[in-house]
Amino acid sequence: KQWYQRRVAITAGGTLCDDGWDNREAGIICRQNGFKYGKAISLVTDREDFVLTGLDCPCDEKENLERCSATRYEDSELPCLPEETAGVRCYNQSTEIIGTFLKKTASKKKAYKIFLSVEVNKFGEPFGLTRLHSSSFEVKSQSVKLKTGKASVKVKEGAAFVTLIAKKPKGHGPPKPDCLTVEMEGPANGQHHEFEHCF
């Protein structure tokens, strides 16, 4: 798996408050769990079982949480709210491309209708998708040549929502397995990505 996002759980049972929580500590946790990079985030949860707060690791520490210090939550002066739950986003690549086929995607009699959301994260942060446009996408099938129309691309809240229609040739019946590949050029110049979907 290329990325992972969760709240930070304490072995003794409970949650970490995000006071003092930053990327250095997140990176240590992610590396201990087999990832290369880590980003500190704050999550909104319905939990209020805070155990620790103010986690702080030495500047030269990269691997071991045992060298870090923290304050017991019951001894802290500042309260934590449920939206101040420490979370972590771990990832293996500096740039991640995440393509998700939405439930509306379907194989119709004359065409494939594809609804795809695309997210790009660079070092754990959403990356601009303004370079994606209607000609950035093409739909291909191993069993038949499809005619892909221009894509509709709408960028909202850090994701690009793509609608594609790929027309089938006359008399084409559904192959088994019925799988498609959506090819995307971008978002940066020279980048090429593929997303596969089977019906």
* Total of helices: 1
| Strand content range | 35-45%
Radius of gyration: 22 Å
Gross geometry: elongated
Q: How many β-strand runs?
A: 16
Q: Specify the structural class.
A: mainly beta
Helix content: under 10%
The largest β sheet comes out as: 7 strands, antiparallel
| Overall pLDDT confidence | 85
Low-confidence stretches: none
Order of helices and strands: EEHEEEEEEEEEEEEEE
Measured between the Cα atoms of the first and last residue, the distance is 23 Å
Q: What structural keywords apply?
A:
three-stranded antiparallel β-sheet, 5% helix
Layout of helices and strands:
Blueprint: E1 3-7, E2 15-16, H1 23-32, E3 37-43, E4 50-56, E5 69-72, E6 85-91, E7 95-101, E8 106-107, E9 111-122, E10 125-126, E11 137-140, E12 147-148, E13 152-156, E14 159-167, E15 179-185, E16 192-198
Parallel strand pairs: 2-4
Antiparallel strand pairs: 1-6, 3-6, 4-5, 7-9, 8-9, 9-10, 9-14, 11-15, 12-14, 13-14, 15-16
Overview of this protein structure:
By secondary structure, the chain is mainly beta. The chain is 5% helix and 45% strand. It has one helix and 16 strands. It has one helix spanning 23-32; strands spanning 3-7, 15-16, 37-43, 50-56, 69-72, 85-91, 95-101, 106-107, 111-122, 125-126, 137-140, 147-148, 152-156, 159-167, 179-185, 192-198. Strands 7, 8, 9, 10, 12, 13 and 14 form a seven-stranded antiparallel beta sheet that branches. The chain is elongated, with a radius of gyration of 22 Å.
